[in-house]
Amino acid sequence: MNTTVYDDRLAEALAAIDAAADAEALEAQRIAALGKQGWVSAALKTLGGMSPEERQEQGPRIQGVRAAVSEAIDRRKAALDSAALEEQLASEVLDLTLPAPAAPKGSIHPVSQVMDELAEIFADMGFSVATGPEIEDDWHNFTALNMPESHPARAMHDTFYFPQEEGAQEVQPRRMLLRTHTSPVQIRSMVEHGAPLRIIAPGRVYRSDSDATHTPMFHQVEGLVIDEGIHLGHLKWTLETFLKAFFERDDIVLRLRPSYFPFTEPSVEVDVGWQDVGGRRVLGGNGDDVGHGWMELLGSGMVNRRVIEFAGLDPDKWQGFAFGVGVDRLAMLKYGMDDLRAFFDGDGRWLAHYGFSAFDVPTLSGGVGAKL
Ligand code: DAH
Asked: Which of 54, 88, 221, 223 is the most exposed place for a label (fewest CB within 10 A)?
């Protein structure tokens, strides 16, 4: 291609770009010039076959052509965007004198509602609400919870890791990740506030998992009590009181089964009894009775003394219990949804059906269960 050809093609391209009537036409011009098969890209490729002298002269020339085309595209894009905005502003009119809609629009998502219910119930038992970052480091999410680098429990978490830092060694103790559970807030609360301590920590957690009952992001609430002389009896009473208030039934019966979590010792899995009411499983009653059964609900246990040590407290003086439960699961059990994925679709019809009125603030006196 000789130099006049560039000038001609450039002039032609600039004219076409300025004449592009919409984003689509402009994109076609961009592809024709700067796309992989475009003429500017082809011209750039010819540089490789030139002698050094020729390249010294042609290089800046072709780069100049490329810059001119790309600036013209940006300019045209800005002009088209602002014209579109002007048009939209001129055509969309909002009449602020119209009366409010007869039926209120918008609703509180069941996850938010359940989190408010939990805060209300636990505040009454002297707990405060704690938070921690969703972008967490390996130490808080795993190591300080008694899951060292090689611990098999780590593999069960399907963790979303951030890329290792450039040039980092094999093991990066503070490698960043999306927290896989709310348990790291235990560590952060103990480090920040010391003991005694009573917190719940509701929030988002992330795992690489997806089906009708698993989504890559979901919600948990963590509970932690640290004090002197705490034992399993306190744990059982607290969970029983919480679940009776939450499900608004006095006949909630719990079954504690031995289990294993690295951060608790001993660890217990908590099942709740249900009964068959016309083909529906309704929580309540002793799961061992005829027509009844047990459903696994949450994990808990006495805080492992190593975790108390990791958080900088003296495990000979301070003991505690902890628990973790899925907030989405609590919402499904209480309000009867069966597909977790719908929680995060943002479908207005689903929200209109399962959402709560913004005026329906859960209180213990008024009832934590919203009036549907
Ligand atoms: N972090 C656990 C999980 O995500 C849940 C859990 C179990 C939390 C036992 C606890 C606990 O605090 O004591 O699977």
From this structure: 88
Residues near 355 by Cβ (< 8 Å), separated by ≥ 6? 106, 107, 108, 109, 110
Give percent above pLDDT 90 in the chain.
75
Cis amide prior to 148 (ω within 30 degrees): no
Question: pLDDT tens-digit profile of 223-244?
Answer: 999 999 999 999 999 999 999 9
Any ligand 1 atom below 6 A from CB of 6: no
Record the tokens describing residue 1, joined without a space: 């291609």
Q: Which residue's C-alpha comes closest to atom 8 of ligand 1?
A: 324
Tell whether ligand 1 has an atom less than 6 A from the beta carbon of residue 58. no
Q: What is the C-alpha separation between 45 and 7, in angstroms, rounded?
A: 18
Residue that is written with structure tokens 């919600």 in the block: 219
> What's the mean pLDDT in 362-367?
80
- Residues 6 or more apart whose CB falls under 8 angstroms from that of 368 comprise 117, 120, 121, 245, 246, 248, 362
With a 6 Å cutoff on the Cβ, whether 326 touches ligand 1 is no
What's the pTM value of the predicted model, to 2 decimals?
A: 0.72
Q: Is the CB of 140 under 6 A from ligand 1?
A: no
| Ligand 1 binding pocket mutation candidate from 183, 197, 267, 325 (most atoms within 8 A of CB) | 183
Torsion of the alpha carbons at 286, 291, 295 and 301, rounded to the nearest 10? 20
Class of domain 110-163+170-354: alpha beta
pLDDT tens track for 22-60: 999 999 999 999 999 999 999 999 998 999 999 999 999
Could you identify the atom of ligand 1 that is nearest to the CA of residue 220? 4
